[in-house]
Amino acid sequence: MNLKIAIIGSGPSAFYTAQSLIKKNINCEIDIIEKLFCPYGLIRFGVAPDHQSTKNVSRVFERVLNNPNVEFFGGVEINDYPSINEILEIYDSVVIATGMAKDRVLNINEKNKTGYFGATQFVNWYNGHPEYKNLNPCLNTDTAIIIGNGNVAIDCARILVKTIKELESTDITQYAIDTLKNSSIKNIYIIGRRGPLDAKFTTVEIREMGELLDCDTILSPGTKNNIDKKLLDGDLAKQYRILTSFDESKPKNSNKSKTVEFKFHLSPTEFIGENEITGLKFKNNLSSNEDCITINAGLVISAIGYQGDEITGLKSDESGMIIHKNNIIEDRLYAAGWVSRGPSGVIGTNKHDGARVAEHIENNVKSKNSSGREGLKKLLNLKNKKYISKEQWFKIDQEEIKRANKSSPRIKFTSHEDVFNFIDSI
Ligand code: NAP
Predict the structure, then answer these.
(1) pLDDT for residue 289 is more than 90
(2) Distance from the CA of 148 to the center of ligand 1, in angstroms?
(3) What are 178-212's pLDDT values in tens digits?
(4) C-alpha–C-alpha distance, residues 76 and 33, integer Å
C-alpha cells in the first residue's frame, strides 16, 4: 500500500495532519498544496511579528516538510482549476485544511468607509501577505478604535503603539515600519461588547500591555467597580488581577506619548462620516434605555473573529465552516483545523484535528493506485501553471534570512512575482 494523500492548505492543521500520518508510519506520499508561495499559514501571516517565539513551531513543521515522502506545491489554488473533484480523482484521500482567512462582518454601515479595516486585512498587511501588501492604511489620525476583546485586537493595538525600536527586531515588513514611523495615532480604544471577565484575551497578552515602552494602558473609569467579584475563579482571577493592575486614568507623571484604553459593555451601532470615518457610535449594554456614546476616531479596526472562504464544490455553513461529521466530509475527504471547528484555540489545538484525520485515513482509506503527485504535476503542466516545490521554498526561506539585517530574523518576500523572479535567477 502506498497511499497518495493531498492536504489543501499549509497552516498548523495541515502540518499536524501530515505529522500524525508520518508518526503512524502509514506508507504514504503526502502533498501539501498551498495557494501562496510559502507554507505555514497563520504562523507567517497571523502570529504577531513581535511574538517570534510563537513562530518557533515552524521548525517542527520544517522537519515534516523535510520528510522524503512529503512534497510542497506552493502557488497552487484549488478551486476552479484544479478543482476539489479533480484532486479527489488523482489522490486516494484529500484533507481540507484551508483555515479561515476572512474577517467576520460587523454588519452595521461599514461598507465603503475609508479608515475602516477588518483585523485580518490589517494583520496580513503588516505581516507581508501578498494579497494585502497594498492596503496602505492611513494612520494620519490621533485616535483609533479596535472592536473586539480577543488576542487579535490586542495584537493590532500593540503593533500600533510599539516604538520603531521595539519593532525593528521583528520580521514586520519594511513598508509597515515606514507607515508606522509616520503614524499620528496617540490614543487607542479597545472595545468589548461584554465585561472584562468575558474578554477572550489570554493573560500573557494582557500582561504585555503593561510593559510597553511608550504607551500607558488604562481602563475606562468605573471599570473596576462594575466587575462582579463573585464570578472570579482560577483563570478569571488571574486575568482580573492583571487587568485591574491598570489604572483608570493616565498616570499624572507619565512621559509616555500613547495611551490604550480598554472600554467594556459597548456595541458599535453606526459609523460617523460620509466616506471617511470621523467616529463611531456605541450602544451602552449596561443601560436599559437607548444610551449611546460617540468616540471620534479616524481609524477603526474590527477584530471580531474570522470567517471561512467558500471552496467550490464543498458545502459550508454561514460562517464558512465546512459541513462534516467528526472531520469526515465524505468518503476519502476530510477537514481539519479552523475550517472544521471555527476560529478558536491556540496553534497546538490543531494537533487533535490532525491526529483524528490521520486515524480516519489509517482505518478507512484504501489505495486505488492513484497517480497522486505525478497526476498533479500533469494537471498543472496542462495549463502551464508554475508551482514552488519544497526545495525551492527552502531556498526562498534561506534568502529571506540572508537578506535580514542584524536584528530582524528575516525580510519576507511579499509578492509571487518577486518569488518567481528569484527562483528563475538561481
Ligand atoms: P476571539 O478570541 O473569538 O475574539 C473575538 C472578539 O470579538 C470577542 O471579544 C467577541 O465578543 C467580539 N465580537 C464578536 N462579534 C462581535 C460584534 N458583532 N460586535 C462586537 N464584538 C464582537 O477572536 P480573535 O481575537 O480573532 O482570535 C481568534 C483565535 O486566535 C483565538 O483563539 C485567539 O486566542 C487566537 N489568537 C491567539 C493569539 C496568541 O496566542 N497570542 C494571537 C492571536 C489570535 P464576544 O465574546 O461577546 O462574542
Answers:
(1) no
(2) 6
(3) 999 999 999 999 999 999 989 999 999 999 999 99
(4) 6
Q: Is the pLDDT of residue 227 over 90?
A: no
Sheet arrangement for strand 93-96: 70-74, 28-34, 3-8, 93-96, 333-335, 328-330
- For β-strands 306-307 and 215-219, DSSP reports them as unpaired
Grid cell for residue 148: 473586539
Say yes or no: CB of residue 346 within 6 Å of ligand 1.
yes
Ligand 1 close to Cβ of residue 263 (< 6 A): no
Beta bridge partners of 299: 144
Are 392 and 369 within 8 A, CB to CB?
no
Q: Which atom of ligand 1 is nearest to the CA of 344?
A: 32
Contact 105 CB / ligand 1 (< 6 Å): no
**Is the shortest distance between the CB of 305 and ligand 1 below 6 Å?**
yes
- DSSP letter (8 states) at residue 162: S
CB–CB of 47/55 below 8 Å?
yes
Measure 305 CA to ligand 1 centroid, in angstroms: 5
Grid coordinates of 89: 480523482
Residue type, 152: V
pLDDT at 229: 78
Within a 10 A sphere around the Cβ of 115, how many other Cβ atoms? Answer: 23
pTM for the full predicted model: 0.96
Q: What is the pLDDT of residue 240?
A: 84
| Contact (Cβ atoms closer than 8 angstroms) between residue 39 and residue 65 | yes
- Beta carbons of 220 and 248 less than 8 angstroms apart: yes
Q: What is the pLDDT of residues 302-316, one digit of tens each?
A: 999 999 988 889 999
Q: With the CA atoms of 312, 314, 320 and 321 taken in that order, what torsion angle do they form, in degrees rounded to the nearest 10? A: -160
Q: What is the pLDDT of residues 83-124, one digit of tens each?
A: 999 999 999 999 999 999 999 999 999 999 999 999 999 999
Ligand 1 atom with minimal separation from the 304 CA:
7
Which domains are delineated in the chain? 3-101+308-425 (3.40.50.720), 104-306 (3.50.50.60)
**C-beta of 29 in contact with ligand 1 (< 6 A):** no
